[in-house]
Amino acid sequence: MTEHVLVTGGAGYIGSHACLALLEAGAEVVVVDDLSNASRESLRRVEQLTGRPLAGFHRLDVRDRAGLDAVFSRYSIGIVLHFAGLKAVGESVADPLRYYQNNVGGAMTLLEAMRCHGVRRMVFSSSATVYGDPQSVPIAEEAPLGPTNPYGRTKWMIEQMLADVVTADPRWQVVVLRYFNPVGAHPSGRIGEDPRGTPNNLMPYIAQVAVGRLPVLQVFGGDYPTADGTGVRDFIHVMDLAEGHVRAVQCCAHLPGLTRLNLGTGRGYSVLEVVAAFEAASGVRIPYRIVERRAGDVACCWADPRRAEVLLGWRAQRGLAQMCADAWRWQKMNPEGYGASAA
Ligand code: NAD
Ligand code: WQD
Q1: Residue 217 C-alpha to ligand 2 middle, in angstroms?
Q2: Pocket test for ligand 1, best of 87, 239, 261, 323 (most atoms within 8 A of CB)
């Protein structure tokens, strides 16, 4: 019987692109998502784009143990990609318990269900946020950890939980992927990032300014110790990230225990460089205003991505111009996101 890949949070931004890449690589894909921050439409479009159906979609909260048991009983699951979780930093500061409950509680229930059904391979969506304010850049995996907000601490706790699970039973094989700043969209413009409400993140904010949904970009801080005074980040194209997940699935069986990997490009761009690249890609001027720094932001954050290249044979291929062009195509073709097709 063919082993299936179970993708939690597969209807979301990164999960939908990963599902597309997995289907293109020939995998049988089952998705579990409670649609709390996503639309079913994303996966319909993934099926259209790939010409391949999902093996199953289950609208389910990963904290629903009985629901998970039914999914594990129905399919022969070989590996779980765990994307499901809440991700808004500010919201996590305002309502930390919701974040611990959903993210840490969700991971715990999922791991218990996996153990019960003898599934011991996982690829986990972690974040560069676990490094907190880095002592130096580029950031390698051994750098000290110390997230500065509850969202980041949920990722850190889950990483520790995974390490303990692997120590207790070395048959587990877990790949922790620490994403830097995922941006962009599939080049078709059919799937992309569709934040609910006002975007928290830079690229979707710029894209909504470009399309006229928002009037002006606020640049948070113009006095950082960087070349132009604005924050510098390692933006990575979501399709590069998706392909990194395919490689992680393919390599997981050969990687013993717990493997922590940065997924970034290894180079940083400032906020104003992103604005300029987006203007070049779209031909639209982006009005901006430099305002106060945003609490909790760091000046610079970019990855040392060499370990992922050594262990997965993966490196990011797409540059900033392509990230902006693809984000713009998605926004232009879907000014309201999945909007009316979202049911
Ligand atoms: P997203 O919100 O688009 O996707 C998360 C998905 O999980 C959504 O479809 C949501 O409906 C679902 N979900 C949430 N809680 C659930 C639950 N309890 N049960 C079932 N489904 C649930 O976010 P994304 O940007 O695609 O992020 C995916 C993962 O990657 C998250 O774990 C996030 O923390 C992590 N990550 C994201 C970024 C980023 O900048 N986007 C960076 C680093 C790490
Ligand atoms: C990038 C730069 C802002 C919006 C966050 C999470 C991190 C990870 C990725 C999940 C910063 C500036 C932003 C705006 C701005 N997510 N900015 N105006 O903060 O690096 O990382 O997303 O794991 O955990 O913290 O990304 O896109 O919010 O900001 O000037 O309206 O853009 O100050 O310098 P960040 P971001």
Answers
A1: 13
A2: 87
Is residue 343 domain-resident?
Answer: no
Q: What pLDDT score does 61 carry?
A: 99
Q: What is residue 2's predicted lDDT score, i.e. its pLDDT?
A: 84
- Catalytic one of 75, 99, 131, 151: 151
Residue 288 catalytic?
no
Q: Whose CA is nearest to atom 33 of ligand 2?
A: 220
Q: Kindly give, in sequence order, each residue whose CB lies less than 8 Å from that of residue 259, ignoring residues fewer than 6 positions away.
A: 174, 175, 176, 311
Tally of domains in the chain: 1
- Binding pocket residue ranges, ligand 2, CB within 6 Å: 87, 89, 127, 129, 181, 200-202, 205, 217-220, 231, 233, 271, 294, 297
Residue 100 in domain = yes
Q: Is the pTM of this model over 0.70?
A: yes
Q: Any idea what the CATH number is for the domain that residue 10 is in?
A: 3.40.50.720
Per-residue confidence band for 339, with pLDDT thresholds at 50, 70 and 90: confident
Q: What local confidence, expressed as pLDDT, does residue 341 receive?
A: 66
Q: Give the structural domain span for 71.
A: 4-338
Residue 342 has pLDDT above 80, yes or no: no
Please report the beta strands in the chain, taking only residues with DSSP state E, as ranges in sequence order. 4-8, 28-33, 56-59, 77-82, 121-127, 173-179, 181-183, 217-220, 232-233, 235-237, 257-263, 269-270, 288-291, 300-301
